[in-house]
Design goal:
The protein is α/β, with parallel strands linked by helices and 231 residues long. 40% of the residues lie in helices and 19% in strands. The structure holds pyridoxal-5'-phosphate.
C-alpha cells in the first residue's frame, strides 16, 4: 500500500494556515491506518477522533500515550468500559443512561471524563442527538447533578448533508445560540460550556463563521476513506 505521508501533512498544515489558531482540529482517523496517524503525530498534532470502540482501542494501544483521543461516533453504554481509562473527550452523548455509565466507569479509574452533549440540528431523522426540549430536561435533571466523575464541557452537532449553505448556516447558528444561552444561564457545576464541536470537511468554514471552536476533519486531511468498516 502506498501512502503519501507528505500530502497528508500538507493537507493538515494548509488547514491550520486557513483557520484561527484557537480552533482545535480533530483529525478524524476512522478507517485510517496507524502509519498515517503516526505521520501527523510526528508533526506535533495530538488530537485524533475515532468512531468505533474496537478500532480506537487497537490504535490507542499501538500509538504514543500523549495523543488526545476523541470519541466522535455513537457510543453504546456497554462499550464505555473499554475507553474510560484514557478517552480525552466523548463528543456524541445524547442520553442520561450513557452519562451514568460513563460516570460509573470513570470512577473506577478515578477520572473525570469530559463529554459533549449532541444536539439534533439537522433535518435528517437518522442523525443522533437531543432535541432542545430533551436537552433542557437533561441539563436540569437532579440525577445529572449527582454524577461526580463526568463533566459536560460543551455541545456537538452535525448539520444536514446538503449543498444549501443557508440551511447549514441556520443549523449551526441554532447550535451556537443554544451554547451561548447555556453559558449565560447555567448554574450547575457539572456543566461548563467551553467547547462547541461543529464542522466537518464539507462545512467547517461555515461552522467557524457561526462560532465553532472545534472542528472534526477526516476526508480533507486523510483523503477518501473506504466506506465499509472492516474491524
Ligand atoms: C467521520 C466523521 C467526521 C469526519 O468527516 P469528514 O467529512 O471526513 O471530515 C466528523 N464527525 C463525525 C461525527 C464523523 O463521524
Amino acid at each position: 500500500m502506498h501512502i503519501d505521508m507528505n500530502a497528508l501533512k500538507d493537507n493538515l498544515q494548509k488547514l491550520k494556515n486557513q483557520i484561527p489558531t484557537d480552533i482545535t482540529i480533530i483529525a478524524v482517523s476512522k478507517f485510517q491506518p496507524i502509519e498515517k496517524i503516526k505521520a501527523l503525530y510526528d508533526t506535533g498534532h495530538r488530537d485524533f477522533g475515532e468512531n468505533y470502540v474496537q478500532e480506537l482501542v487497537e490504535k490507542y494501544e499501538q500509538l504514543p500515550k500523549d495523543i488526545r483521543w476523541h470519541f466522535v461516533g455513537h457510543l453504546q453504554s456497554n462499550k464505555v468500559k473499554y475507553i474510560a481509562s484514557f478517552i480525552h473527550l466523548i463528543h456524541g452523548v445524547d442520553n442520561l443512561k450513557l452519562l451514568k455509565e460513563i460516570n460509573k466507569q470513570a470512577a473506577k479509574y478515578n477520572r473525570t471524563v469530559s463529554c459533549l452533549l449532541q444536539i439534533h440540528i439537522a433535518k435528517e431523522e437518522t442523525k443522533f442527538g437531543l432535541s432542545k426540549e430533551e436537552y433542557f430536561q437533561l441539563i436540569s435533571s437532579e440525577e445529572l447533578k449527582a454524577l461526580k466523575n463526568i463533566k459536560i464541557i460543551g455541545l456537538m452537532g452535525m448539520a444536514t448533508n446538503t449543498d444549501n449553505q443557508e440551511q447549514i448556516k441556520k443549523e449551526f447558528t441554532e447550535l451556537k445560540e443554544l451554547f451561548d444561552y447555556t453559558q449565560k444561564h447555567n448554574h450547575s457545576e457539572i456543566i461548563q460550556m467551553q467547547v462547541l464541536s461543529m464542522g466537518m470537511s464539507n462545512d467547517y468554514s461555515i461552522a467557524i463563521e457561526c462560532g465553532s471552536n472545534m472542528i472534526r476533519i477526516g476526508t480533507l486531511i486523510f483523503g477518501e476513506r473506504k466506506s465499509i468498516h472492516k474491524i
